[in-house]
Amino acid sequence: GQNIDQPTEMTATEGAIVQINCTYQTSGFNGLFWYQQHAGEAPTFLSYNVLDGLEEKGRFSSFLSRSKGYSYLLLKELQMKDSASYLCASMDSNYQLIWGAGTKLIIKP
Amino acid sequence: GAVVSQHPSWVICKSGTSVKIECRSLDFQATTMFWYRQFPKQSLMLMATSNEGSKATYEQGVEKDKFLINHASLTLSTLTVTSAHPEDSSFYICSARVPDLDHSPLHFGNGTRLTVT
Hints:
A: mainly beta; globular; B: mainly beta; seven-stranded mixed sheet; 11 strands
């Protein structure tokens, strides 16, 4: 079956670094997406990985290991506005997205 | 970048009435659009895949006669919630991908918050 696992909730301190992990099992694999969703709003695209390794975009980086079925999203220099849910989604062989339940990130001053 | 516009942002209706939600791709043509529903503190749930010029594909457990989807043009898909009931109150979000780019991300509309009284 297809499955995406990520922690339900994480807490971090403003200015610190946090890593949100995601493991996936899908029928075929065409890449791993990360989205940010603030409460009451629609998701917004953060990153896409299809090859192994680290992709860096400013304060946010995303890592993929295809052999391990594992990805993480790394957020540096945390700001209060980063408080949101972070959704991991794997694209299967039919180019459909399989969604994780999301990780609620709470930033404390 | 690709933009998806959704309207209305929120709607309150009485039980038994129907509500139409529009989803438009503003700067690209979307042969396929996706309709999601999200209840509070829960994950996105795909309801149906809207295909331009053909019937929508509904996920298991989603009533096609209750959630009518029309994708009449390459830039517009509509979702009509018929005979709405309070349990249909939810956050409905549409999305689309730029075609011919297999690895392009889903771009989401801003969502429609439906409250049925």
